[in-house]
């Protein structure tokens, strides 16, 4: 998680003019991290990553009585079939993968912004 926050912080410190990211596509990388993101520009990625940081810092679940619709309810019969340790491991490994992909995306936004600034400075 520290790598994620470090990448987001670096992106926020580097990107001084987010409007320069408008209209710049998030090109698919060799490792395929951009395959599902072709319809968004870098500005949208920047804003999404920046807002996501607040989500992680403030807490994962909203306070209130209602359960979020994105978290499936665990039924007693499922708990008996799978050990709680296996379920915990599954969710933690999924969280790790999500944070890894978000870190890569933040690094890509930072690199692309640096390329844009380099081209502007050469002009």
UniProtKB/TrEMBL annotation:
InterPro entries: Lipogen_MT_Stabilize_sf (IPR053719), Spot_14 (IPR009786). GO terms for biological process: regulation of lipid biosynthetic process. The keyword Nucleus applies. Keywords: Cytoplasm, Nucleus. The keyword Isomerase does not apply. Gene3D superfamilies: 6.10.140.1610. Pfam families: Spot_14 (PF07084). It comes from the Eukaryota. It is found in: Cytoplasm; Nucleus. One of its GO terms (cellular component) is cytosol. Belongs to the SPOT14 family. This is Mid1-interacting protein 1-B-like.
